[in-house]
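Predict the structure of protein acetyllysine N-acetyltransferase.
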Amino acid sequence: VETGRRRLAALIEGASVVLPFTGAGISTECGIPDFRSPGGVWTRNAPIPFDEFVASRRARDEAWRRRFAMEEEFGAAQPGRGHRALASLWRAGKAPAVVTQNIDNLHQASGVAAEDVVELHGNTTYALCLSCGARYELAWVKERFGATGHAPDCGCGGHIKTATVSFGQAMPEEAMRRAEALALRCDLFLAIGSSLVVWPAAGFPLLAKRNGARLVILNREPTEFDEAADLVVHADIGSVLAAFVSH
Ligand code: NAD
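Done. Here is the predicted structure for protein acetyllysine N-acetyltransferase.
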């Protein structure tokens, strides 16, 4: 771990544009289980595909019931050492943005400006109307849900859904474009806490690497791309990155 940390520090020191790219692993120390951990909310139920959400009121009610159950479990989660370290890099001007697959809002909570958090899978801490795009706060949805027993619809008649990307739902185009541009602009790409199996997670590290950037993978288990990386650190994210939190 110590060697990995020293080599990572040297790479960061020598880089001019660092791009952190994060997955569920950065949030496990905050109490939010990653995709694979058995018993986590993510594995307890089969995900509700987008088409089903749109087509069925029962699916929408179920999606919202699950979301409120998650709120009980993880609603109070706070940023961890990994989030705080990346916020320090961002504040120091080393990292222009953070690209994340996470939907938990913890990069913003750690101090990175919302416009500099590029969310590939959206954000679960607020909701949007699928038709007109109006924004809704979860507290409002919860109150309506409690009062009627059903997920509320928007005034325009559209369905209201958390601002996340479900299976079968289109990827957010602007976020994809920005992530690609950032991957091409960086000279150091840090893949942190992602199994790198979910598309498009798999695409960005290689894009950066092929464009001449150094690639670092920080993850406690091996990933598909370890062989392509300039530095692989198989260790706990919080322990490695704690050293990069500036006070
Ligand atoms: P993943 O679960 O596929 O991979 C996470 C990786 O992080 C695993 O390889 C695991 O070994 C590693 N890891 C976990 N804790 C770690 C730690 N403390 N130190 C080092 N490594 C650690 O996650 P993914 O690649 O992000 O893909 C899952 C998808 O599910 C994401 O795209 C995301 O949309 C969604 N998801 C989001 C959250 C969240 O917002 N916090 C949580 C779970 C899943």
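The chain has two domains: 1-32+78-121+171-247, 49-76+124-164.
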